[in-house]
Amino acid sequence: MAHAYISKRIVTPLGTQDGALLVEDGKIRAICRRSDVPSDAVVIDCGNDALLPGLVDTHVHINQPGRTEWEGFRTATRAAAAGGYTTLVDMPLNCLPETTTVAALAEKRRSAKGECFVDWAPWGGAVADNQSHILPLARAGVLGFKCFLIYPGCDGFTMIDQQQLEAALPPIAESGLPLLVHAELAGPIDAARKSLANADWRSYATYLASRPDEAELEAIQLMIRLCRQYSFRLHIVHLSTALAVTEIKAARDEGLPITVETCPHYLHFSAEKIADGTTLLKCAPPIRSEQNRLALWHALRDGIIDMIVTDHSPCPPEMKRQDTGRFDQAWGGIASLSLALSIIHTECSSRGFSLEDIARWMSSAPAALAGLSHKVGTLEAGREANFIIFDTDSEFLVTANRLHYRHSVSPYMGETLRGMVKQTYLRGESIYREGTFTSTPSGREVTL
Predict the structure, then answer these.
(1) How far apart are CA 273 and CA 428, in angstroms?
(2) Which of 35, 62, 213, 275 has the CB geometry, 3.0–4.6 Å to 241, for a possible disulfide?
(3) Domain architecture of the chain: domains with CATH
(4) Which helix (H) or strand (E) holds 109?
(5) Residues 208-223: pLDDT tens digits?
(6) Distances from the Cα of 321 to the Cα of 56, 197, 282, 324, 327, angstroms
(7) Is the peptide bond before 136 cis (omega within 30 degrees of 0)?
(8) Which residue intervals of 360-407 are DSSP H helices?
(9) Do 373 and 360 meet the contact criterion of CB atoms below 8 Å apart?
(10) Which of 118, 123, 128, 132 is nearest to 105 (CA)?
(11) 325's torsion region: left (phi>0), alpha (psi -120 to 50) or beta?
(12) Residues 6 or more apart from 220 whose CB is under 8 A from it?
């Protein structure tokens, strides 16, 4: 039996429409006028609440298997459902074993079975010595590959130097899958840290100086050159410096297949407002200046930054070292799966951006990166019936009970955000409704 979700604001690729979203057998059957709703359909009137496509997050550290004390499929996907996400793509590091071989991928799949409230898919890793595993991983179903040009913080997922990377690029190009790059080089960071030998590591200014813009800029310049040489799909993860925007635009104007993401924390926070010792805001690359933050918003407006993803990277609270407040000792990562949509909507409310912009940045563009546009990312006939009912007017205070991921710590705690996910639907079934979840996880691995 068809269900018709009536709304004044259905956010589609063709604009926001007044009408009905028709759902049948887990798929979107049509978006139609109210008068065209079949007489036998079950009608759900959403009033002025907006209907958006289920969000797609291509940068999530779920950490299972091996580090479920940090996060796991069950807790991460619960938080995702509460935040309006219906598809997550899991990063290949911080889990044990890291997803750098087909055998490790099989372990991840076993650990995810029956645990997921939303759909998920894996990225594979490109590390120092796994070049021979690239094509087998592609054939086994990873959606792309992630690499670090600098030490990633965990020993098991090794950084890749230029020689090793160039050995991996031909099979990556052959696979047709994207390479996601943590774009920082060690040279500028090592030089900066030498000059900070006697600095106060409780000071955010010290941490910011230790990871200068040049580390990102030089890494992006290197990757643009390699993209030109090897003709692979390049994706720059968590762009934090706006200094790279001009070169990225020039490379894309040249026709190079480059996409770029940034994250809510780079668009919401600024270095000038980060108090010393506030290690909950440590991430890498770091949150930079207010001027830089505004420039990232301009790059989104201009279409140079394609998407907003969370880089949800949780850890046990003690690893954030709030006891010492030392940025050099704290784990770098910010968790935001349950809040990201509300954070971005709050920022957009005063900037003239629309729900269509948000749907593009947080759903259709990440879906395209992952190669999943034929299934998810937009409200169109034939797509999976993954959607959310979003109250754009309600405000709420960020408290621990709204986080839903494993550890209830957040740098957003105590903030008032505008825009609330009321319900999340996965293949036409309600999985989250105003603070409560379905009792049986129905998420599954999504494939190309």
Answers:
(1) 42
(2) 213
(3) 54-374+407-413 (3.20.20.140)
(4) helix 102-112
(5) 999 999 999 999 999 9
(6) 31, 20, 10, 6, 8
(7) no
(8) 365-369
(9) no
(10) 123
(11) left
(12) 183, 236, 244, 247, 248
> Over the stretch 23-80, which tens digit does the pLDDT of each residue have?
999 999 999 999 999 999 999 999 999 999 999 999 999 999 999 999 999 999 999 9
d(CA 437, CA 195): 51
145, two tokens: 């590959």
The identity of residue 104, as a single letter, is: A
- Which whole number is the average pLDDT over 231-244? 98
CA nearest neighbour of 371 among 169, 122, 148: 122
Strand partners, 261: 307
Residue 9's identity, in one-letter code, is R
d(CA 258, CA 251): 8
Rounded to whole angstroms, the Cα distance separating 328 from 332 reads 9
CB atoms within 10 A of CB 393: 10
The continuous run of DSSP H or E covering 348 comes out as helix 340-349
Instruction: Tell me the β-bridge partners of 390.
Output: 50, 421
Query: Which segments of 284-351 are extended strands (E)?
Result: 307-308
113 Cβ contact list (under 8 Å, min separation 6): none
Question: Which residues, 6+ apart, have CB-to-CB distance to 268 below 8 Å?
Answer: 293, 343, 347, 412
